[in-house]
Design goal:
By secondary structure, the chain is α+β, with helices and mostly antiparallel strands. It contains six helices and 27 strands. Belongs to the metallophosphoesterase superfamily. Purple acid phosphatase family.
């Protein structure tokens, strides 16, 4: 995921490129200029005042259906209290939940005290307030639980990937906060700490404080990316995913997963499956066995929309990470078709791209049948790896392939608004250097309840 020169592509993208397929946006940003990290003394990384004040507060769904929440935070001076005090806006009664504290070391870094507490038996569609810390350094936050799982329940997800902690990252997060997203599907690559000398884990702390302004108030659903692996023999670090898995817990056991990097949740009208690009995924692996057991459990009369999250995209027309998703696609694509996955969100490529409904199920890497074909039973594949990290934007292959409906090397976020069992509206909101622009949008038809052709172009 290294940074490369963008001079040639900036010239190429100064005009609309219409090829066999879709469109490359006419908007041109300065692709030569590398994103710049916010300084460590930036307000975005401010440490909350008070002795041992909780920081880096974030939440994620804590069960299968949305009636539990994992509350996480860090204290620096001492462990402090593991308790979360919480109450609903319709009740005068306070509840208390007790959690666990974790620490880890990474090369020359020792973490603070990382707290994870799960609160349970929450009511659907209810505002809850919660408090962490003790004495004069308590901090209070709130969140809204999802509506009860149901066919025609409207619900809106945000999508961000590859965020990092640059000035562009700050713009992306600010724009998302001003949207109507109520839970964030995060498609991998968080802090980019591994891009700094010795995987500087201080950058995990700054990223946690930076994202708290959203992640403490609505659940972020975590996908592990390659920048979370943190495996480095040169500095003696041989445990993959150590910082990520210690800091960011997932409810994997609720869906009978054997590993925290692949799991599923139900939220309102959606069944969301998170896959692990960087865990073993072959036919004999635990991930494959879990997925083949999980997909038959998806009840489209209960959760009408089936969403899949992963880090490395399967359909990608960027020069960056081209074809990296092929091994996983060859093994899993037939399952996506069989169980009528509606949409797949990925990151990894630092650009935005949306596919048509296509499949390449006949291709097995060796037989040469390698041209994706129009397939209205297939999901739409959307790459949202454009959060704003310091590595910069990707460059695009020319000509644009027929399966690519819209693409743009620019920063932004996605919004997926489910309206009912048949329709959902998706938009990609480009930062455009200071304000959000809805640069790409379309209505998606549900593959199970409304399997009509919603493609934007014809694929020959």
């Amino acid at each position: 995921m290294g940074y490369s020169s963008f001079v040639a592509i900036a010239l190429l993208m100064s005009v609309v490129v219409v090829c066999n397929g879709g469109k490359t946006s006419t908007y041109v940003r300065n692709l030569i200029e590398k994103p710049v990290d916010m300084p460590l003394d930036s307000d975005a990384f401010a440490i909350p005042p008070g002795y041992n004040a909780p920081q880096q507060v974030h939440i994620t769904q804590g069960d299968l259906v949305g009636q539990a929440m994992i509350i996480s935070w860090v204290t620096v001076d001492e462990p402090g209290s593991n308790q979360v005090i919480y109450w609903s806006d319709s009740s005068l009664q306070n509840f208390t939940a007790e959690g666990e504290v974790f620490t880890y070391t990474y090369y020359n870094y020792t973490s603070g005290f990382i707290h994870h507490t799960t609160i349970t038996n929450l009511e659907f569609d209810t505002t809850y307030y919660y408090e962490v810390g003790i004495g004069n350094t308590t901090r209070q936050f709130w969140f809204i639980t999802p509506p009860e799982v149901g066919l025609d329940v409207p619900y809106t997800f945000g999508i961000i990937g590859d965020l990092g902690q640059t000035f562009d990252s700050n713009t992306t997060l600010t724009h998302y906060q001003n949207s109507n997203g109520t839970a964030l599907l995060y498609v991998g690559d968080l802090s980019y700490a591994d891009d700094y000398p010795y995987h500087d884990n201080v950058r995990w702390d700054t990223w946690g404080r930076f994202t708290e302004r959203s992640a403490a108030y609505q659940p972020w659903i975590w996908t592990a990316g390659n920048h979370e692996i943190d495996f480095d023999l040169q500095i003696g670090e041989t445990q993959p995913f150590k910082p990520f898995s210690t800091r960011y817990h997932t409810p994997y056991e609720a869906s009978q997963s054997t590993e925290p990097f692949y799991y599923s949740i139900k939220r309102g009208p959606a069944h969301v499956i998170v896959l692990a690009t960087y865990s073993a995924f072959g036919y004999s692996t635990l991930q494959y066995k879990w997925l083949t057991a999980e997909l038959p459990k998806v009840n489209r009369s209960e959760t009408s929309w089936l969403i899949v999250l992963m880090h490395a995209p399967w359909y990608n027309s960027s020069n960056n990470h081209y074809m990296e998703g092929e091994p996983m696609r060859v093994i899993y694509e037939s399952l996506f078709l069989k169980y009528k996955v509606d949409v797949v969100f990925a990151g990894h490529v630092h650009a935005y791209e949306r596919s048509e409904r296509v499949s390449n199920n006949k291709y097995n890497i060796t037989n040469g049948i390698c041209t994706p074909v129009e397939d209205i039973t297939a999901p739409i594949y959307i790459t949202n790896g454009d959060g704003g990290n310091l590595e910069g934007l990707a460059t695009m292959k020319q000509p644009q392939p027929s399966y690519s409906a819209y693409r743009k090397a620019s920063f932004g976020h996605g919004i997926f608004a489910i309206k009912n069992r048949t329709h959902a509206h998706y938009s990609w909101n480009r930062n455009q250097d200071g304000y959000a622009v809805e640069a790409d949008k379309l209505w998606l038809f549900n593959r199970y309840w409304n399997p009509l052709n919603d493609s934007t172009i014809h694929i020959p």
